[in-house]
Design goal:
There is one protein chain. The protein has one domain: Sulfite Oxidase, Chain A, domain 2, CATH 3.90.420.10. 8% of the residues lie in helices and 32% in strands. It is built from three helices and eleven strands; from the N terminus they run H-E-E-E-H-E-E-H-E-E-E-E-E-E. The strands form two sheets. Strands 1, 4, 5, 8, 9 and 10 form a six-stranded mixed β-sheet that branches. Strands 3-2-11-6-7 form a five-stranded mixed β-sheet. Bound molecules: ligand MTE and molybdenum atom. InterPro entries: OxRdtase_Mopterin-bd_dom (IPR000572), OxRdtase_Mopterin-bd_sf (IPR036374). It comes from Methylobacterium isbiliense.
Length: 201
């Protein structure tokens, strides 16, 4: 006799339910960035948590590799309207980073900063509680440089411009400060399900 639910597998959700408004599904992984892909030597790579101008904690690549690892698989949504399903990432959760630094987040907001001087703002509440990580692997391999390797922020529930590539640190800020795209007309928060693409959406 076949028992319903015996395999413990849920039926896959239909594509329409997984696509936020205005998005389409792609199988590709488009590359979107301002400038050329920076080449980052792992011997010189470091990752820093800071509060304004004050550094709080810094890790070398070797130290970062020793931190607890987290895996996440799910859908990502770019403001240019593509969505990609079931992407698989591995890295260090922001919860584990803060614990390893021995600190609680000093403010409610931060700017993620890239080696290419890109910045983007994210509320701390959107990164803790298992909602964000500094990813170093994609689909079981080191993240390719074009997609932000050696390390990129991953905040999958917000539009993908919030997932800063070539991330070099997180800077806690007293107020919610606009980053590169947010200063140029993009939304301060960027929730794909509320279609927050531009400043006044
Ligand atoms: N450091 C950095 N991160 C960045 C960008 C950038 O120009 N520099 N572009 C952002 C934008 S606009 C998008 S849509 C995504 C694209 O990520 P992908 O190239 O891996 O698809 O990266 C975001 N992260
Ligand atoms: Mo983008």
């Amino acid at each position: 006799m076949a028992t319903r639910g015996f395999t413990g597998r849920r039926p896959p959700r239909p594509v329409e339910e997984r696509l936020p408004p205005g998005q389409y599904l792609t199988e590709d992984f488009p590359v979107l960035q301002l400038g050329p892909t920076p080449r980052i030597d792992l011997a010189r790579w470091s990752f820093t948590l800071s509060h304004g101008a004050k550094p709080l904690k810094r890790w070398t690549w070797a130290e970062f590799e020793g931190l607890p690892r987290t895996r996440w698989q799910g859908d990502i949504h770019c403001v240019t309207k593509w969505s990609k399903f079931d992407t698989a990432w591995e890295g260090v959760s922001i919860d584990d980073l803060l614990a390893a630094a021995g600190i609680a987040a000093p403010t409610a907001f931060l700017l993620a900063e890239g080696y290419d001087d890109y910045t983007t703002n994210v509320p701390v509440a959107d990164l803790v509680g298992g909602r964000g990580m500094v990813a170093t692997a994609y689909a079981g391999a080191p993240i390719p440089p074009d997609h932000g390797g050696p390390a990129r922020l991953l905040v999958p529930h917000l539009y993908f411009w919030k997932s800063a590539k070539w991330v070099k640190g997180l800077r806690f800020t007293a107020k919610d400060e606009a980053g590169f795209w947010e200063l140029r007309g993009y939304h301060m928060y960027g929730d794909p399900w509320r279609e927050q693409r531009f400043t006044d959406d």
